[in-house]
Amino acid sequence: MFVDTHCHLHWTAFDPDRDEVIRRAIEAGVTRMVSIGVDVASSRRSIQLADQHPAVYAAVGVHPNDCAPFDTAMLNEIRSLAQHPKVVAIGEIGLDYYWHKVDPDQQARVFQAQLGVAAELNKPVIIHSRDAISDVMAMLESFTHDATHITGVLHSYFDSLEVAQRAFELGFFIGISGPITFKKAERERAVVKQVPLDRILIETDAPFLTPMPHRGRRNEPAYVRHVAETIAQIMALPLVQVARQTTANAARLFGRAMEFVG
Fold this sequence. Notes:
The chain is of the alpha/beta class.
């Protein structure tokens, strides 16, 4: 059994066959899927999907590339949405210096505000970091030093072993996604080989970051198995051990509801 801890089931790419995508995932042993919001509208939609499907849970938040219009009303909306019983995290939040869509100072303000909501509500955070890991880690370390402790996951992790170790010291996990299966991902596989399995989550980021052997097509939660299989190969472990441990990790971070479909 697997948990896809990061997908975007609200995305329009799934409009033609969303129910079938979820059914295929369950048939493939994906007992839980966390659909991640990137703004207020997609956060609401993720909650609607979670209400409709027992295997789906939601995270709510405003992505750094979508945070230009962020204001107090939006923060209050995220706070309100986060109290829904099927919302397991605040996210996807963080910093993105790759696309240059939003001023970095605005990104930092919005990131800090949403970290505050997570601390207030005792929710974990799902962190987006692209070309910004130094500032992301500095903010997380400062926040956890000055405020109520929070934990979370660095989504789709592609940074160094040293940064991962800093994240582990904060109680964070790293999320491993489809690119770990790519032929040229030697550096990322070397990092995974050296980190403890009890600090890894598996994810798809569907409909993005499609793993081999489906690369070039739309990603979907059923394909999280390929990520788990690659981790098992890297660590020379049975697939069932990787499945059990990463599912247990998801339950530790997001709550016992991640463990199985009732």
